[in-house]
Amino acid sequence: MTYNMKGAAALLVPVLLSAMLIGCAAKKPSDKDGKLSIVCTNFSEYDWTREIIGETDSANVTYLLESGMDIHNYQPSAEDIMTISDCDMFIYVGGESESWVDDALSTKTNKNMKVVKLFEAVNDNIKLEEHKEGMEEEEEHYHDEDEPEYDEHVWLSVRNAELICNDICDKLCELDSANADTYKANLADYTDKLRALDGEYSKMAENAKVKTLLFGDRFPFRYLVEDYGLDYYAAFKGCSAETEASFETIAKLAEKLDELKLNNVFIIENSSDAIAKSIISSSGNKNASIEKLNSLQSVTSDDIKKGATYISIMKNDLETLKKVLN
């Protein structure tokens, strides 16, 4: 993982914490309406929490990255740190991109805060990053070589989503026992929807004539493909900050496109298609199409207003895979 905003965030947070401690005596956030304050670092967490809360109107849920900023490039502001410090529940992924969280939580003003860490909620389902054939070699400028590097994109497994929702509901019930029965009922309804979606993905994979995805981009979908027995090749690892592929990477992926007789190259949302185009032009299949999958890393507040949900986006990805793989 190259040194980028992750390293800067880790260095910046202690400075923000110092400023926060100086200023919090003068101005401390407070929840004036008596509702729970819940803070989420990514969209999936935010949407799952809203589904479990339902129509109880018992909590204000904050989505820190509502501008659509990718979690890998996010640096918390002093205001964000203050919001986290005083909330009743904080939900975060727990990967290297959020290395700033430990410092942020070390000075929390709400000592009764409940914390949901996705890496812990999915138990033993966390996967180490892997280097696949054809993938760009990257220098590790910031990552500790002795520390394992995990794939952060646990939310892209519908099966993981069920585990995480269980943890969110448990913590909500501890905070608000008066609404516990409602939270549990909402969780049961949502779990049925997740299991139905999982069934649709399983059926898609079983019927697929093509079992391999080729990405001219970074690859955040490892949890998804491993759930359903699919394979992949990609230009970069899921958490990579690289945007330029070498000639060797382009050539190897073009070779794979031909070898596996693939007709599509994938990219993720908000990515350039330049690498995908180079792979296609270097292959024997000049008519291969470029397809897009949404990794739920750049969902904005405007998208939410237009009706975007975890399930709706995952269903859109499912339809794309059905079209391409069958």
Name the features.
12 helices; alpha/beta; two-stranded parallel ribbon; Rossmann fold; 2 domains; 8 strands
Which class of secondary structure composition applies to the elements?
alpha/beta
Helix content: 40-55%
Number of discrete helical segments: 12
Kindly state the mean pLDDT as a whole number?
89
Rounded to an integer in angstroms, the radius of gyration calculated over CA atoms is 21 Å
Shape: globular
Distance between the termini: 34 Å
CATH superfamily of the largest domain: Nitrogenase molybdenum iron protein domain
What is the domain total for the residues?
A: 2
Briefly note the CATH topology name of the largest domain. Answer: Rossmann fold
Strand % is: 5-15%
Q: How does the major sheet shape up?
A: 4 strands, parallel
Tell me how many strands there are: 8
Q: Order of helices and strands, N to C?
A: HEHEHEHEHHHEHEHEHEHH
Top CATH class of the largest domain:
Alpha Beta
Low-confidence runs of at least 5 consecutive residues: 1-6, 8-30
What is the spatial order of strands in the main beta sheet?
A: 2-1-3-4
**What CATH architecture of the largest domain would you give?**
3-Layer(aba) Sandwich
